[in-house]
Design a protein that fits this description.
Shape of chain B: globular
Oligomer: heterodimer
CATH topology of the largest domain in chain A: MetI-like fold
Distance between the termini of chain A: 24 Å
Structural class of chain B: alpha/beta
Number of domains of chain B: 2
CATH class of the largest domain in chain A: Mainly Alpha
CATH superfamily of the largest domain in chain A: MetI-like
Radius of gyration of chain B: 19 Å
CATH superfamily of the largest domain in chain B: P-loop containing nucleotide triphosphate hydrolases
Structural class of chain A: mainly alpha
CATH architecture of the largest domain in chain B: 3-Layer(aba) Sandwich
Number of helices of chain B: 7
Number of helices of chain A: 11
Largest sheet of chain B: 6 strands, mixed
Order of helices and strands of chain A: HHHHHHHHHHH
Number of strands of chain A: 0
Largest sheet of chain A: none
Largest interface: A-B, 22 and 28 residues
Strand content of chain B: 15-25%
Helix content of chain A: over 70%
Strand order of the largest sheet of chain B: 6-7-8-3-9-10
Radius of gyration of chain A: 23 Å
Low-confidence stretches of chain B: 1-19
Chain lengths: ~270, ~280
């Protein structure tokens, strides 16, 4: 009963928004190129999702058949770029952050340049990335890795620096040397911060991949909605945006799952 | 108690009678000065004491008397600014597993479950898997933690956390156990049962224990000897041997006589502490 009531309360606003949208688009006040009807968007979304080859045409290869869906191939391309870009950016930031957090001299060496480069939004690197890498995947990888790099770096440094001295003392007391201290005390103690940084970095990567695809590549979800605008297919623009929203939600959900698993020991998760 | 039978843990083979020549812990004119914005603070001044093998020494005093500072110096976390501390004849140069420390804040590694916390020291030492498993099993039994072995510290009560911390230290079988107000945050009943547990372990394994407390009752109940420290600078105000038979009865007249005596001593120092606070020092 209570759950039903909460559910009903939760859908009131979405239903009203949808009704208003429907009414506006059917009223003739706005042309469909400006505001497509919700039904047109749903129809377009399904069309966008549907594989363009028959299963037989795809030679009964399930992967190939799915890839013939425009939406799935776009999503695959965008995810692939995020994976590579985030992997490079985060993969460089993590060890550097661990070193900067543990060693004051390394911190003093790198901190000035980090502070200088950090406020430059990854988007501002677009012209330079095209000059350096031309068009295609390489500039996208570059931009995404910059987007992932700084959040992971800064959080890792903060995470290592805030490790409670009591754990260090306890480990020293039990005979831990420097390596044990690093791998078994400092890294796990810093994990909550590192994961928070990874989460922000992944969010930034997701923004940057869409922008990069609008400018430097001709595939992926970002490219697709820009292309749809050129044909004035507003229903496809919105369908693409919805897909981007779903993908972002899925990435965030995955990150939450990973977080909950890796931090199952963490106090903050006590219910 | 079911734990009692298992308490034959490869006892370190030392007996109090072997204490003859050399003190287990020697504190020779130990002094400690801290620099702060308001100038230098002398936390400890000329502490001179010998602690013998198998003794249960309680360091008693009000807040700010430097008892935890002294314990941290014995543990090797901080270095005295004057004098010397030696353990089994060798000067203390840093922290080490021969002086197992039980912290007031437990200091369990929250990312390790009970078993892993207990095994940590042995893994560092490079003990074999079988040895570690056997030791962990034994300690889980002694400290009645067996059914909680897979839990993380966040899911344990304060009393259980402190039992894990004790087990973690005992895993390395250190000759000395240092305890820094370990039961300060526990409720009275849990506290009493842990005190009995520590006594049981101390009696069975004949460890040397240095135990910091500000509770007079706790000091008399546990200690074979009580060192009363003065408020800033911390010095040894009185060194009292407690000869009461064990298990001790807290309502025994002799217990109460000692309590009165110690109360007077401690309250003098507490007064100096309050005066200093009021004076903004």
């Amino acid at each position: 009963m209570n759950r039903l009531r909460r559910f009903l309360r939760g859908i009131i606003v979405p239903v009203l928004v949808l009704a208003l949208w429907s009414w506006l688009s059917n009223s003739g006040l706005l042309r469909p190129e400006i505001l497509p009807s919700p039904l047109a968007v749903i129809a377009r979304w399904i069309l966008y999702l549907a594989p363009q080859e028959s299963f037989a045409e795809a030679k009964h290869q399930i992967g190939e058949w799915l890839y013939s869906s425009e939406m799935l191939s776009d999503a695959y391309n965008s995810l692939y770029r995020i994976a590579i870009g985030f992997g490079i950016g985060g993969g460089l930031a993590l060890p550097l952050g661990l070193l900067m957090g543990t060693d004051k001299r390394i911190y003093a060496l790198f901190d000035p340049i980090v502070q200088f480069l950090r406020p430059i939004p990854p988007i501002a690197y677009i012209p330079l990335s095209i000059l350096w890498f031309g068009l295609g995947n390489p500039p996208a990888f570059f931009l995404i890795s910059i987007g992932a790099f700084f959040p992971v770096l800064l959080n890792t440094i903060a995470g290592v620096m805030q490790v409670d001295g009591i754990y260090i003392r306890a480990a020293q007391n039990l005979g831990a040397g420097r390596l044990t201290m690093f791998w078994r005390v400092i890294i796990p103690a810093a994990t909550p911060y590192i994961l928070a940084g990874a989460r922000i970095g992944l969010g930034t990567s997701f923004i940057v991949v869409i922008v990069a695809e609008m400018i430097a590549v001709n595939s992926g979800l970002g490219y697709r909605i820009l292309e749809a605008r050129e044909y004035l297919w507003s229903d496809k623009v919105v369908a693409g945006m919805i897909t981007i929203g779903f993908l972002g939600l899925a990435l965030d959900l995955m990150m939450t799952r990973l977080n909950n698993y890796l931090l199952r020991w963490h106090r903050g998760l006590e219910s | 108690m079911e734990g009692e039978a298992t308490l034959t843990v490869d006892a370190p083979g030392r007996t109090p009678s072997q204490t003859a020549m050399q003190p287990e812990i020697r504190l020779a004119h130990v002094g400690m000065e801290f620099q702060s914005a308001a100038g230098g603070v002398v936390a400890l001044n000329d502490i001179d004491a010998n602690i013998w093998q198998g003794e249960f020494v309680c360091l008693l005093g009000p807040s700010g008397c430097g008892k935890s500072t002294l314990l941290n110096a014995i543990a090797g976390f901080i270095k005295p600014t004057s004098g010397e501390i030696s353990v089994e004849g060798a000067p203390v140069l840093g922290p080490g597993p021969d002086r197992g420390m039980v912290f007031q804040e437990y200091a369990l590694f929250p990312w390790m479950n009970v078993e892993k916390n207990i095994a940590f020291g042995l893994e560092i030492k490079g003990a074999s898997k079988a040895q570690i498993a056997a030791k962990v099993e034994e300690l889980l039994g002694i400290l009645r933690l067996t059914e909680f072995r897979k839990r993380y510290p966040k899911d344990l009560s304060g009393g259980m956390r402190q039992r894990v911390a004790i087990a973690r230290v005992l895993a390395l079988d250190p000759p000395i156990m240092l305890m820094d107000e370990p039961f300060g945050a526990l409720d009275a009943l849990t506290r009493r049962s842990l005190q009995d547990e520590v006594l049981r372990i101390w009696e069975a394994l004949r460890k040397t224990v240095v135990f910091v407390t500000h509770s007079i009752d706790e000091a008399i109940y546990l200690g074979s000897r009580v060192l009363v420290l003065t408020y800033r600078p911390g010095t040894v105000k009185r060194d009292i041997a407690v000869g009461l038979p064990r298990p001790r009865d807290t309502s025994d007249p002799e217990f109460n006589r000692l309590k009165r005596e110690l109360s007077l001593l401690v309250m003098e120092e507490q007064q100096r502490f309050s005066d200093a606070e009021a004076g903004g020092a």
